[in-house]
Amino acid sequence: MNRVVRGSDGREWTIKANLEWSNPIAADEFEHDVNGGSAPAILMGAVFLFLVVMFVVWTPAEVYVPSWLILLLIAAVLFFPVRWVLRRPWTVTAATPGDHDENPPETWVGVVRGFFDVRQEVSSVSRHIELYAEPDMNGSLQPVE
63 and 44 in one domain? Predict the structure, then answer.
């Protein structure tokens, strides 16, 4: 997700949002930097999928399976992967090369969790840059050196 915005002072800002596949490490989480990886989740998903397939395959032909049960099984299988994708952290970056007169280059970075929240944050940052020439200091983006 990329957007180019012209600030009220004439500088051109590039706002980028990138999906993070692993959680960014915060300064106070250094003891949790060892991660088990995605292998346990993949294994549990495979076991669950195997059990659902075996349930369907071993059902005798004369047994009536209601359609709502099949839909419930599909929803159960898809619930956690869809939730996982929709709640991934995104890194939002607003950067400007500055101009040669009085404005130096700036970069603002922040982490936002969730697809819909990222879209709202990018729109909010864009609007704030258009009005005030820089992102909101009280928002999720913070300046970096």
Answer: yes
Token code pair at residue 42 = 């993949």
Question: Roughly what angle, to the nearest 10 degrees, separates helices 67-86 and 39-57?
Answer: 170
Structure pTM?
0.71
- Domain total for the chain? 2
In which residue ranges of the chain is pLDDT below 70? Answer: 23-37
> Cα separations (Å) of 134 from 17, 35, 46, 49, 138?
17, 36, 47, 49, 12
DSSP string, 104-119: PPEEEEEEEESHHHHH
Q: What is the pLDDT of residues 49-81, one digit of tens each?
A: 898 889 888 889 898 888 998 899 889 888 988
Structural domain range at position 59: 30-86
Residue pair 15/96 in contact (Cβ under 8 Å)? The answer is: no
